[in-house]
Amino acid sequence: MRNELVRRLILLCAAVLLAATFVAHVDSAEPKKLVVYAPNTTYSVDVIDRKGTEYVGLVELLEPLGRVEAKLDGKTWALDFASGSRTSHGRFRDGKKDAELPSGKLNLRSNFFTQDSHGYVPLDNLQEVVAQIAGIQTQLHAPTRHLYLGGVGIHYSAEIRKNRLVLSFTSPVAPAISSEGDVLRLTFTRDPLLSSGNDAQDFKDAAIQSTSFAETNSGAELIVRGNTPLVANSSDGGRTLTISPPAAVQTSTPSQPAQSVATPQVQTPPPKPETPLPPPSVLAPAAKPAFLVVIDAAHGGEDTGATLAPKVFEKDVTLSLSRRIAHELQNRGIQVTQLRNSDVAISPDQRAVSTNTSHAAIYVSVHASTIGHGARIFTSLIPPTTVAAGRTFIPWDAAQSQYLDRSSAVSGSIAFECNRKQLAVKALQGSVSPLNNIATAAVALEVAPLDSSVESLSSADYQQNLAVAVANGIAAIRATAGEKKP
Ligand SMILES: [Zn+2]
């Protein structure tokens, strides 16, 4: 059968190319990636080296942007793309340079090729190919392999105000922050941060020496050199980062310093669901605790979460790590509620309702994953809103929007403590349920293995180190917020 022959041929090609990819991966320690910044998301796709030319798979690249269908018919690879009401088509030929795009013919700089029915175009041609097929503004920064779609890009400015460096961004940012001596390194992996046009700035300030900006293969990096150790503080919903010596932090934090993290706003009742959801059961508890932290071990019961290793489920790792965090917080005199302290199933809505009615100051959801290394701290992706004073109703799905400043302060503080313990950490924004429904400072901690062994997730040492860093981060925030100890 002819079909059978074609199938075998495809399988053979796939096997050969798979082997080739494997060899390429062994050659270079880290596989090359193209970082794609799109209006609603940031993602990366593999870059494949073939005969000295870098290629990217079109299906992988376009999939997050719309519906993609690709078909290999003989030597012709046809691609259909649809996004909203717009559809477009492209036609490429395996082993050839000529391509047909919506606006006409294009000669690629190197031969197009297919592998496993996926089609690969040279990196050098991506800008024009993606712009035409996806119909959006496209800009490629080839040296760092960044692709900016739909005109995304965050600009920043740096200004010195009395021993403080104030970095203002045109959109909220969530960099990973690490410090080494007097140098503070801000690493942006999700935010499309662009050069300000003045990549190296020197300051004549007692505390701050200079800043330098660079695009890197995984994002962008802003390095701040001080004359003394520095810490960063996020405010204005992540649009402002204030960098200063630690002593100055006490007075420099967010918009509402008096009632920053410690006091949940009394005028905001538990959010009401707009769609059928379990209604908040209790309104206001009689006595409100001074500073309560809710630790929420994600998953449980039939919901095992991710299978991290044979017979190692996420729900068990999150529970044991949550217990350690709770214990460390109690050691620091902080009142803690564990939402889940056994193997039971709790819905995200139940978790949010329990947290909101408890008038907690901080909510921490705990997850585990085998992807990447170290800790990732997520804050909600929801846009910030300022609700007029005296307004008593906030929509269930937007409960978090008023607390983003506080949430990113908590995230920053935990990240800072992880860095101090030399635990790899990234502060990110993401849609992790039920963060959007939490009416107080809320973060989700996702732990990944320490090194290449998944077993490290269950290691008592590693969990303990993380628990101490989280507890220290929360204790530092309580101090900053000027909480009166009972
Ligand atoms: Zn999870």
Give the end-to-end Cα distance, rounded to a whole number of Å.
82 Å
Give, in spatial order, the strands making up the sheet with the most strands: 9-10-3-2-1-12-11
Uncertain stretches of 5 or more adjacent residues: 12-28, 248-288, 482-486
The largest β sheet comes out as: 7 strands, mixed
Strand residues, percent: 25-35%
Ligand inventory reads: zinc ion
| Count of alpha and pi helical runs | 8
The overall average pLDDT, rounded, is 82
- Gross morphology: globular
Radius of gyration: 25 Å
Helical amount: 10-25%
Structural class, by secondary structure, is alpha+beta
Tally the beta strands.
29
Please give a handful of descriptors for the protein shown:
single chain, 486 residues, alpha+beta, seven-stranded mixed beta sheet, six-stranded mixed beta sheet, 8 helices
Task: Characterize this entry briefly.
It is built from 8 helices and 29 strands. It has 486 residues and is an alpha+beta fold.
Strands, helices and their partners?
Blueprint: H1 2-27, E1 33-37, E2 42-50, E3 53-57, H2 58-62, E4 67-73, E5 76-83, E6 86-93, E7 98-101, E8 104-107, E9 113-115, E10 118-122, H3 126-134, E11 138-141, E12 146-149, E13 156-160, E14 165-169, E15 176-180, E16 183-188, E17 200-202, E18 208-216, E19 219-226, E20 231-235, E21 240-244, H4 249-252, E22 292-297, E23 307-309, E24 312-313, H5 314-331, E25 335-338, H6 348-357, E26 362-368, E27 375-380, H7 404-420, E28 425-430, E29 441-447, H8 460-480
Parallel strand pairs: 1-12, 22-25, 22-26, 26-29, 27-28
Antiparallel strand pairs: 1-2, 2-3, 3-10, 4-5, 5-6, 6-7, 7-8, 9-10, 11-12, 13-14, 14-21, 15-16, 16-19, 17-18, 18-19, 20-21, 23-24, 27-29
Bound molecules: zinc ion.
